[in-house]
Amino acid sequence: MAIGALFILEVVIVFSFVITSFFMFFPKKEETLHKVFFALSVMLGVLITIISATSLPSNYTAQIAVTWMGLIPAAIGVIISVAKGRPTAAAKILSMLTSILGAVFYLFLL
Fold this sequence. Notes:
Shape: flat
Largest sheet: none
Order of helices and strands: HHHHH
Low-confidence stretches: none
Number of strands: 0
Oligomer: single chain
Strand content: under 5%
Structural class: mainly alpha
Helix content: over 70%
């Protein structure tokens, strides 16, 4: 089985997501690091979703729409983070959920 370039990119992004998720919860006193890793987590989630949605054939409109709906948890997480002034645990979990959904959609909708 040949491993495609998009799959390799997806694996690298998912690995980056795992590292980011670990460091998003790890530093206890550094508020700036929480914000940086939260923003990075949201960006990785958006990137994974874009790759997942654009890698599907154009006649898979329902699957493409479901893939784009995977961005809703990240949007809610960003709204919570902005409302509270800092990323809360719920916002961090929602941003992580976006990355997980993007990876799952990529693996199972193709």
